[in-house]
Amino acid sequence: TRANEKVGWEEAFARIYELSNEPLAINSKEEFIAFCDAVNDGTINATSFKLMADIDLSCEDWTPIGSKGHPFDGIFDGAGHIIKNLNVDHSSTNYQGLFGYATNATIYNMHLLNPKVAGQDYVGSVVGYANNSSHITDVLVTSNASSGNDYTVKANYGSGGGIVGYAKDATIERCMFRGQVKCSGWTGGIVGNVRNNVTISDCSASNFLYSSGNVIGGIVGGR
User: Fold this and answer.
1) Paired residues of 177 in beta bridges
2) Which of 77, 125, 181, 201 is the most buried (most CB within 10 A)?
3) Which pLDDT score is estimated for 66?
């Protein structure tokens, strides 16, 4: 501020916020939806976000956060909260999950309870496509999906994974998946398909994996 310039308190606080690394707080389902819309519209004006409450997405036909045209490239801290009843049902569309397309992103510290995610290719409960040094860590996914026609993650074609559908130059650490993955292609308990430099450590997956193809694995389907 110039010496003779007078700044009101609202503007002063705004400037302090812009210069700080304090994450933008997400306090409700409505704010979570607004965050998703801003990322997908390319109008998001912050880079770090923190969930401050459990979120119930029942009755929401969820559009994933981030697309190939407007990927999520920030930091999302779930702060140990639960996001329950995620419902993504876009069986003819790629890049499906809570987050659709992430590049150079950090997504961590949350519990997805009873998600149900269906898409065409690049389908995961947390991230459909994790690219360019994205880091997914400390995520728990638990589902009450049973054997048969039920599913937690379903990819009609291509890559489907319990946590991430497709990972390229990414890191996945300390993630646990308990659910059912059904896919016609690359099917994995943690990641459906990997490419280039991908690190997966301290992860576990259990329950059911079904593939109508021949590339299937408890942690990684294929590369």
Assistant:
1) 141, 205
2) 181
3) 98
